[in-house]
Amino acid sequence: MGSFYMHVLPGTVDLNKVEGWGTRKFLGLEPTGLSGVMFEGCKIGFAINMEDITPPSGSLSDPTIATEERGRQIFERSVEGAVRFMQWFKGIDPRVKS
Fold first, then answer.
1. What is the DSSP letter of 95?
2. Whole-model pTM over 0.90
3. Number of structural domains, the chain?
4. Looking at residue 60, what is its pLDDT?
5. What is d(CA 2, CA 53) in angstroms, rounded to the nearest whole number?
6. ∠ CA 28-56-54, rounded to 5°
7. Residue 96: inside a domain
């Protein structure tokens, strides 16, 4: 997210204020982000509060690798993907047929 904000809101990310980052186990299992855990090699959907697996900074990954260029790439891929999805979606009938 730091890279994204560096691109979208220049000057708002101060890497000099970086604190701890990473995840810790949740109920003894490795989290797969905020949406689940790994159990015996399988991802299991599970609602997790961020505070339960992250340090006080809330950062899941290393913020020191953030760059404005990475943010630009993330932004452009996101917009391009959203546009492609909308173009696809407007060409289909979204009603489920029984």
1. S
2. no
3. 1
4. 79
5. 19
6. 30
7. no
